[in-house]
Design brief:
The complex is a heterodimer of chains A (157) and B (66).
Chain A lengths: L10 H21 L8 E9 L9 E9 L1 H17 L8 H28 L2 H11 L2 H19 L3
Chain B lengths: L1 E2 L1 H7 L4 H8 L3 H8 L7 H10 L4 H4 E2 L5
Antiparallel strand pairs in B: 1-2
Helix pairs in contact in B: 2-3
Classes of the chains: A mainly alpha (157), B mainly alpha (66).
């Protein structure tokens, strides 16, 4: 089965490592209240409205920012993409179908959950929903894909 | 679409893994095809038929709802 967008299987382990690491750091950032002093460096802010971090309004400002949350987010995204879009050991049409079905399922499930959250979650708690929602499509996809793969291999005759 | 892969496998004394290796697919695929959860492509059906040295129609057949 030839697919143009899948990376070689060897990157899968790296993907899992980054994905898990990113989720752990992400959890620390979320439960720590997003307020950290470590890794504070100068970054370029393309647009800053001012707002609750107290920055100056304007374009292309250099600001000081702890990049722990940025690193966590990028690690989750890179790891998740690697896990989801590297070839399996044996890549065939059934695995391809499982991957596509999982993607469709993940998108629908994600937005159903988001819709429910929009109706029932308000204020600062909804901010958490927005943060989680940056990663849940990937998370649901990876989980669903591996669950289906496990389910279809676990029951021989 | 139903198939006789399980029977053919038994006659040739092959496990799902053996068959999967022979035609270069994952064992999950064979499992899903045998259970009727996945309809293989024409290419895969032809490969399976060729391995068992039988016409495709002897192994795969249509059902009423197809």
């Amino acid at each position: 089965m030839k697919t143009s967008y899948l990376l070689p299987h060897k990157y899968k382990t790296l993907g899992w490592a980054l994905f898990v690491l990113g989720l752990i750091i992400g959890g620390v950032v979320v439960f720590g209240g997003y307020d950290f002093d470590i890794l504070k460096v100068n970054v370029i802010s393309i647009y800053d409205e001012g707002g609750f971090l107290g920055g100056d309004r304007g374009f292309f400002n250099i600001i000081k920012n702890s990049i722990l949350d940025e690193l966590a987010a990028l690690t989750i995204i890179l790891g998740g993409l690697l896990v989801g879009f590297t070839k399996e050991k044996v890549e065939d049409e059934f695995i391809y179908k499982l991957r596509n079905d999982s993607l469709v399922w993940a998108i629908i499930f994600n937005y159903v959950v988001l819709a429910i959250a929009i109706i029932f979650v308000y204020d600062y708690s909804f901010f958490h929903i927005l943060v989680f929602n940056m990663f849940t499509p990937l998370l649901f996809f990876v989980f669903r894909f591996n669950f289906l793969k496990f389910k279809s291999s676990s029951d021989e005759e | 679409m139903k198939n006789r892969i399980k029977v053919e496998r038994a006659e040739h004394d092959m496990t799902q893994a053996d068959l999967a290796n022979e035609i270069g697919v994952s064992r999950q695929s064979i499992n899903a095809i045998e259970k009727g959860k996945f309809v293989p492509s024409a290419v895969l059906a032809l490969k399976i038929a060729r391995l068992f040295k039988k016409p495709v129609e002897d192994i795969f057949s249509l059902e009423d709802q197809d």
